[in-house]
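input
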Amino acid sequence: MLQQFFQNKVTEAGCDEAGRGCYAGPVFAATVILPNHFFHPLLNDSKQVKEKDRNELRWYIEQNALAYAVSRVDNNEIDKINILKASFKAMHKALDNLKLKPELLLIDGNRFLQYKKIKHHCIVKGDSKFAPIAAASILAKTYRDEFMQTLHHEFPMYGWDKNKGYGTLQHRKAIEQFGLNKYHRKSFNIVPQQIELFLKNN
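output
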């Protein structure tokens, strides 16, 4: 059972990201401020929710949240600054676009880079404990999945409509056959060893 709030004295915003462990595509982040009365029986960590239900929740969250924002950092930036910093940057960008100013941030995970002078709490598995973080996880996940669907049309051989850029067997085999493209995260060391040896020797 999700807790509605971490505390009830100041305005809270939940923050979460999606796509941190992917081989390709951006990392997305979302932040959400929920009203006191907010409830949906399906709300949970996005990884525990079926795709159809996630899409229903996205609509419900966007209709009922006091404020929300979603942002992304692309694979080129990820390669430049690393995925952890890129995840923090995506969260900061989402917070920049939030129309209400929260006084406390609830961050999914165990690390965060301070945003302005706003206090924050890092909560491990927070997306399965607190409603604002769960809502942020739903938005980050659905927006990223939708974005990967558009990239799939450009490079259908990688199966991003199904694997969303994660390192599934299908995706790894496609990389072996077709190599990397402009949306892959080159810093993730995902080039198959035999291809890497060929590139070094030629």
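quick obs: The beta strands are 12-18, 27-33, 67-73, 104-108, 119-123.
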